[in-house]
Amino acid sequence: MEWPVKQLTDVVESFHQGLNTAGEKIKFVDSGFPIIQTRNLSDGKIDLDKKIKYLSQVDWDKYREKYRPEIGDVFFTNIGTIGKTAVVNESLDYLIHWNIFKIRPFEVDVSPNYLKCYLDFLTSTGYFCDSQKGGTVSFVTKKMMGAVEIPLPPIPEQQRIVAILDQAFADIEKARANAEKNLKNARELFDNYLFGIFGRPHESWVETTVGDLCVKMEYGSSAKSQNEGEIPVLRMGNLQKGEIDWTDLKYSADPEEIKKYMLQKGDVLFNRTNSDEHVGKTAIYRGEMPAIFAGYLIRVHRKQELLDGDFLNFYLNSSIARDYGKTVMSRSVNQANINASKLKEYPIIVPDMKTQNQLVSIFSSLKDELERLEKVYVRKLSLLDTLKKSLLQKAFSGELTKSKGIAA
Q1: What pLDDT, in 10s, does the model give residues 231-272?
Q2: 111-125 burial, b for 16+ CB within 10 Å, e for fewer?
Q3: Cα(163)–Cα(157) distance, rounded to whole angstroms?
Q4: 75 and 86 in contact (C-beta within 8 Å)?
Q5: How far, in Å, CA of 64 to CA of 74, rounded?
Q6: Fewer Cβ in 10 A, N or C end of the chain?
Q7: What is the C-alpha separation between 37 and 95, in angstroms, rounded?
Q8: What distance in Å separates the CA atoms of residue 98 and residue 89, rounded to the nearest whole number?
Q9: What gap in Å lies between CA 16 and CA 14, rounded to an integer?
Q10: What is the pLDDT of residue 134?
């Protein structure tokens, strides 16, 4: 028996966007009645603590009747980030913002949790990406939303579908959490090993600074790069996990710039500006292809008889060096910066070249194993996402409840 299909407008008591605070010229206050936005919906839950804005008593009294949620309402984010959902399970005093639809279904036709799952299914298939409008900011209109067609099995069948999906998704999230934890543990083990080497060196190692082990430091090219040209210009985004990422390249055709900033195999590049997270990222150029480097980067000309390039690269990417960098970086409103003078002052303790080479070999082997594990865990996370989409597909085609159960 095929399920009947109805449009959303035919199975809801009401649905509309939340309060347009800009249009209504709302002035937020330091405390009062919360108004939630897209960021307050996460993993199907409503977070009333994350960067909340507040309305005054006067505005609350004025707008509560229309914009205060009730138990059983379904939320759907329709501006910017499309498709976050949640079901209201408790009665609390807050309003919803303009970027959220508040949908109140007729529960004789569709259960709130079934509707939420179906909207999640449509989002997973790209339905709203295909139908949304907007240039810089995407949005789903009320007309688009109202035209959504929903398959409607009997309420007991809807409840059964939701129960199966809830259990399956709980198992998937548990598997996801375990995979993410294992990946985090693997990264921490590698970081801890580096910390143990650089933080507790042998007594024979020499305590010095990066500047004392270098001939000079050099800022990169300030010339404007382009999408096509003769030579790649490495930028901050090309420094990934201690290596050069050769995707998303810009180029230079300026012969003087190319001659002046041409990299040599073994050069170490240090990212000197951006956010706290990205300042200090370092990578080693291995001569894969000719390239120059942009002005956001610093090339370290090391004394090759005293300092191995890979040893320096591992050190500058270690938590010891990154934490030190946070204490000396300068900050403006949106950017942090570590200039060459500060980089020269980085403390470093080094062994002889033979020991450096031996440690680099160990570091590289551990890094290769970490990257292998990362690929395994990333693939597992991708498979879990695929499984979730498959379960949603089966649920709304009637296949899920035809079988007696699903594999855990």
Answers
A1: 999 999 999 999 999 999 999 988 999 999 999 999 999 999
A2: bbbbbbbbbbbbbbe
A3: 10
A4: yes
A5: 17
A6: N
A7: 9
A8: 21
A9: 7
A10: 59
